[in-house]
Amino acid sequence: MSAPRLKPGVRLHRDRVRGRDVLLAPERVVALDETAFAVLKLIDGETSLSAIAAALAAEYDADANEIEADAAALIGDLALKGYVSP
Questions:
Q1: pTM summary value
Q2: Domain extent at residue 68
């Protein structure tokens, strides 16, 4: 997974009514937890997954390898559902 990106028509959105972050796609809304949002807000199609993991590791004082594994699983799942291009 080199540089993941949201697929066309998919975007992050802050649902102010419910007070949570969501992933909006045509005809769908996916509620995100804080961890998923932290990962998805950094994917831009140019930044590698390892760079994203390193940034999150520095921000949260956590192990970059664990974050990269968890982020890869999240992105892989969202890719299977058609929201992300890995």
A1: 0.90
A2: 5-81
